[in-house]
Description:
Blueprint: E1 8-9, E2 19-21, E3 28-30, E4 55-56, E5 60-61, E6 66-71, E7 78-84, E8 98-104, E9 115-123, H1 124-128, E10 140-149, E11 155-161, E12 167-173, E13 181-188, E14 201-211, E15 224-226, H2 239-242, E16 247-257, H3 269-276, E17 280-282, E18 300-308, E19 311-319, E20 329-334, E21 337-341, E22 343-346, E23 349-358, E24 362-368, E25 376-384
Antiparallel strand pairs: 1-2, 2-3, 4-7, 5-6, 6-9, 7-8, 8-16, 9-14, 10-13, 10-16, 11-12, 11-14, 12-15, 17-25, 18-19, 18-25, 19-24, 20-21, 20-25, 22-23, 22-25, 23-24
Amino acid sequence: MSEIKVNSIKGVGASTAAITVNNADGTCSANITNNLSNRRINQNGQMSVWQRGTSITSQGYSPDRYYQKFSSAGGITHTISRQNLTSSDTPYDSGFRYFMRHALSAAGTANAAADVHTQHTIEAQDLAQSGWVHTSPSSYLSISFWVRASTSQKFYLNLRTRDGTSQAYNIPFTPSANTWTKVTAQIPGNANVQIDNDNDKGLHLNFYKFIGTDDTGGSSENAWAAYSGTAKVPDMASTWLTAGASTFDLTGLQVEAGSVATDFEFRTFAQEVALCQRYYESNMGPNAPVTTTDGSISSQWAYMGSQDSNSLLASTGIVYKVTKRTSPTVTIYNPSNTGTANRANSEGNEKTVTAVYGGINAAGRVYVSGCSAGDYVTYNWESTAEL
């Protein structure tokens, strides 16, 4: 019988091996970049789901699973919006159709207390069961994403664990101005990293566009260290913040276990929506904010029932499409006037919602004051179980 003994197989002109053989036990590892399923740990990496609306100008979640923070950076407007990719954009040829844009209305101020970043948080149990041995320096987490900024400077992707003694890892990246750049990084495990197998916060991914000197300095790059709230990342240039009407674009975020950043794993829109609805859901459905004022067209309907503690109980019938991560916070809005939370419309009149009761699968009771038994009530609702 013939056999071939090799240490590795490498393509002509390639810098890394396609297949590497372990000489001790005969096993091998392969650098595979075709689409292997169920390896992307994070949700909404292709920026397709925007349940709260496709544009915001205040701090909060949008797109789904991304929290936008901007504070103490001068009296400017920050706009987070969904944008369409075209065939002239490099990520388009890789299958992406949307990106998240952070646009500034004017030049900001690089105050010491300034903080401008986008945060994506991964649930602890999703990391704990991903295949990444987070305590081993020979086991890796791979992160990849597409980024474009209107100015060229060093930005940081800051990783922060939340279990045990919080640890941090800073990934620097410097895209050329107005040029799509794909960033990849391999993060080794570390004995000090703790990831619990539960439904709480596991890992923050913080994309820092600028953070002031109150919270920078003395932090290393590409190495794990104990997290410090006053040294989150190294000192940052303020070029992007102070240049004027700057933009920062992001898409194609993928977090996966393994030492190779593979091709992005695309999911159907329905799959991605369902994954996001573990953390947020509303009666308006995907890509329409719960604060949409359309009267009773899209709203929930119920009839007032029994008297209870000076409020009338509406049996809501709110059954979630997806079981929530934890018992959610439910907020009710009058569909004819969504400017104030905890209001409902009863027979054309705005009434106060005094309490909402439910669990991870449904919100079964809404208490509305000032109604009469048999009155109909309409309302919009949102259910939040974010990390």
